[in-house]
Amino acid sequence: MSREAGFSLIEVLAAVLVFAIVGTMSTGLLVTSLDAKDRNAAALDRLSSLQQVRALLRDDAAQMLDRPARAGRDGEPMAAFRSDAGLPGMARTGEGTLLLGLVRRGRANPGGAEPRSSLQRVDWRLEDGALVRAVWPLPDTAPDAVPERLVLAEGLSEVAVEFFHGGVWRDAPLRAAGGDAPPPAAIRLRYLDPAGCAMEHVVVTAIGEARA
User: Fold this and answer.
1) Considering the domain boundaries, does residue 168 fall inside one?
2) pLDDT tens digits for 86-116?
3) Strand-pair category, 186-192 with 157-165
4) Is residue 42 included in any domain, yes or no?
5) Side-chain half-sphere of 19: how many Cα atoms within 13 Å?
6) Residue 71 within any structural domain of the chain
């Protein structure tokens, strides 16, 4: 009689152990790879947001004009440069706060296709930890005019904006007796992003370039 070949119990257990070790290592590598992918995606999102904030803030500052805007039913004038920075309301809540308000040129009108101005009014606001850029297509608007809003970043904390006047940085813009705020030579925006990283943007305004 021939004896059938087979595996002993010890060999089977050894094979099962090897497969278990390989499976555990493979699962660990897979989890690590997925975690790394999520972290990389989050980092890319933060980088994209950072670059967008920097580009738009730089463009707005570079195209800024020393021109008052008008809004409301009676066309009430607003200061050429506006900010709630330094006011008690901003220090208390930081929600719905006007960080920057300005009039800028540069609204696209290829070939002068439309008989309109290239000026527009732009507000940078902090709304419940979100950095929002609101744009009106004209500097002088009706009371019911609705701006185009763009959420640039969310989950921000310790947001602060500073203004370069007379060779020094100030935590509030200069304000004249009539409430006007002379445009600063430069603007600095600082905050902590959702990951707790400190971010800082420093831009020179068109006013600052003209005085340099």
Assistant:
1) no
2) 776 554 444 478 999 999 987 766 555 565 5
3) antiparallel
4) no
5) 6
6) yes
